[in-house]
Design a protein that fits this description.
single chain; 176 residues; alpha/beta; Rossmann fold; 6-stranded mixed β-sheet; 3-stranded antiparallel β-sheet; 9 strands; globular; binds 1-O-pyrophosphono-5-O-phosphono-alpha-D-ribofuranose
C-alpha cells in the first residue's frame, strides 16, 4: 500500500496568526454590516470554520459545491454549480471563502456567476494562491499565503479524498 509522510509547509500556528490578521481586516472593512460567507466545499471547510470564529460581524453562513471539467485553459462553461446557496444574494455583502486559487478558473467563473445576482459587494478570501499556475487573473481580497507550485494537502485540501483533516498545510513525500 502507498505510504506518504506529509511534511509541514505552513504550520498550524502560522495559519492561526494569518487568520487573525485576515479576520481583523474583514471586520474593519464591513464596519458592523452583515455578511454572507460562502464556504466553497469541500476544501474550504476548515479555513472557513476558523476564519468566521474570528470575524466580529453578523454572519450568515452558506455553502456551495462546484465541479470543474476544464483543463484550465478555457474559461467559464466548465465550472458547474453542484450545490447552491439557499440565501438570496441581492443587495447583500458576500464573502466567498476558498482554500486555494490555482489556475483561477473556478474563482473567475464563480465570481461571474455571483455578480449577476446583484450583491451589494462581492469579495474573495483564499487561504492559498499559486501564482506560477495562474491563467485566469482573479483579485483575492484576503489572501493567506502565496505558495510555490507544490502539491499541497491538509487543512481542508485533499489528495485522492484523503488528508483533509490535517491541522496544517503539508506536502507529500513519496516513500517515507
Ligand atoms: C480546488 C479548490 C478550488 C479549485 C481551484 O477544488 O478548492 O475550488 O480547486 O483550482 P483552479 O484555480 O485551478 O480552478 P477541488 O476541485 O480540488 O475540489 P474540493 O475543494 O472539493 O477538493
Amino acid at each position: 500500500m502507498e505510504h506518504f509522510t506529509p511534511e509541514v509547509l505552513i504550520s498550524e500556528e502560522d495559519i492561526a496568526l494569518r487568520i487573525d490578521a485576515l479576520a481583523k481586516a474583514i471586520t474593519e472593512e464591513f464596519n458592523g454590516e452583515e455578511i454572507i460567507v460562502i464556504c466553497v466545499l469541500k476544501g474550504a471547510f476548515m479555513f472557513c470554520s476558523d476564519l468566521i470564529k474570528k470575524i466580529e460581524l453578523p454572519i450568515k453562513l452558506e455553502f456551495m459545491q462546484l465541479s470543474s471539467y476544464g483543463d484550465g485553459t478555457t474559461s467559464s462553461g466548465n465550472v458547474k454549480i453542484e450545490m447552491d446557496v439557499t440565501e438570496n444574494l441581492n443587495g447583500k455583502n458576500v464573502l466567498i471563502v476558498e482554500d486555494i486559487v490555482d489556475t483561477g478558473l473556478t474563482l473567475t467563473t464563480l465570481l461571474e456567476m455571483l455578480k449577476v445576482r446583484s450583491p451589494k459587494s462581492l469579495k474573495l478570501a483564499s487561504l492559498l494562491f499559486k501564482p506560477s499556475r495562474n491563467k485566469h487573473p482573479v483579485t483575492i481580497d484576503y489572501l493567506g499565503f502565496e505558495i510555490e507550485d507544490k502539491f499541497v494537502i491538509g487543512y481542508g485540501l485533499d489528495y485522492a479524498g484523503r488528508y483533509r483533516e490535517l491541522p496544517y498545510v503539508g506536502v507529500l513525500n513519496a516513500g517515507n
